[in-house]
């Protein structure tokens, strides 16, 4: 199999564990990996204090996340990345359609207990994906 596998990152340990599963799957299947991060356009982070402040908007933070993840995942593998404003589940589905992806990899975080009732990214992606969805076990990541 060739094609593209899409995975999202958000800076959490569970998302990185899902990304590592996506990398392993891409290597095993001879596919490329596309790392995506969704962001809120209104989000701003301020680091430091006084005159030594660094202000980053949501796009900057997302770009840092995908670049860091792509660098750590990309050994011996074709890895691309993108940042897209919007909700994580919708962004994953949109990017998978845009990339004509074969598989979206998501973690199973929030698929138990109250998160299962209220919904999860994995659940939303599984119901709306234009391709196969692989749900990686990420419960022991954080």
UniProtKB/TrEMBL annotation:
Pfam families per UniProt: Usp
InterPro entries referenced in this protein's UniProt entry, alphabetically: Rossmann-like_a/b/a_fold, Universal_stress_UspA, UspA
Leader sequence residues: none
All residue ranges annotated as the UspA domain in the record: 1-135
Gene3D superfamilies for the chain: HUPs (3.40.50.620)
Family: Belongs to the universal stress protein A family.
Annotated protein name in UniProt: Universal stress protein
Source organism of this protein record: Arthrobacter ginkgonis
Upper classification of the organism: Bacteria, Bacillati, Actinomycetota, Actinomycetes, Micrococcales
